[in-house]
Amino acid sequence: MTEPITLKDITIHPIIEQQAAFFPAGGFFPTLDSELLAENRAWLQPSFLDQADQLVLCIQGFLIKTPHHTILVDTCVGNHKPRPTRPFWHMLDSDRFEKGLAAAGVSVGDIDYVMCTHLHTDHVGWNTRLENGRWVPTFPKARYIMAERELAHWTEREKRNPASVPWITDSVLPIVEAKRVQIVKSDFAFSEVVQLIPTPGHTVDHFSVLVGRHGGDALITGDMIHSPLQAKYPDLGMMADYDSAAAGRTRRQIFDRFCEDPTIICATHFPTPSTGRVRRWGDGYKFIAVD
Ligand SMILES: [Zn+2]
Fold first, then answer.
1. pLDDT tens across 157-172, in order?
2. Distance between Cα 75 and ligand 1 center (Å)
3. DSSP H helical ranges for the chain
4. Residues 195-215 pLDDT 10s
5. Separation of alpha carbons 254 and 70, rounded Å
6. Can you give the pTM of this predicted structure?
7. Which of 18, 28, 245, 261 has its CA 20 to 30 A from that of 141?
8. Ligand 1 centroid vs 130 CA: distance in angstroms?
């Protein structure tokens, strides 16, 4: 379930903030028609789809402990953040994320690096916290790793229309201003056991994180995929994609690479257990949970 994954001397702990049925499947996947949904309802329910055809999603990050680094990949929605267009994330006031860190044996002061797979609202929230009316870095000694073109894209959007991207204003730019950001290419080799893998499409310069050594590794997807329905149908785009065709090519390429390997896929938005392996399934891929 929420047990850590162990890869020799490395552990990966899911840090969950929320799990719920957030979005109707039809709107979430704009090209998903009712027939295709009907064909797949039996295996999607009840884990991935509720009785009202709402997608069950987890909002979580992953904590990686290596002998040398403590790294948090993605920081969920965060507290006290105005998100008027998303009522279930608006002005959240929850201790679940910090309790998750505590259960994994760390506090905010222990995080060496935060890695932002991309800069969407449900992945950057805990980058900052409110202190005396100001947004300050939540993790006082962490450096925050962001992909170069991703940061440039959202910085430009924020400049043009800040009201459309409040999470950039309160959860990304304060990190830049505090000089805590480390800007990298999306194929950055962080260490011998932590490697960024470019997975563009959902956003302009999205990356996933490959952890471990060949034969004993795990891939933290970020939003390269949102539902196992997109493994079966890799070309199925979701509503917030920057380029759905590119996202589909990314899914095919990544699953083709890992579908014969023992690599554990840590699928950020899949409900628990969010960890599994991918295997071929017709023209697509099947996600087989491992807990
Ligand atoms: Zn997301």
1. 999 999 999 999 999 9
2. 10
3. 25-28, 34-44, 96-103, 121-124, 148-160, 166-171, 173-177, 229-232, 244-258
4. 999 999 999 999 999 999 999
5. 26
6. 0.97
7. 18
8. 22
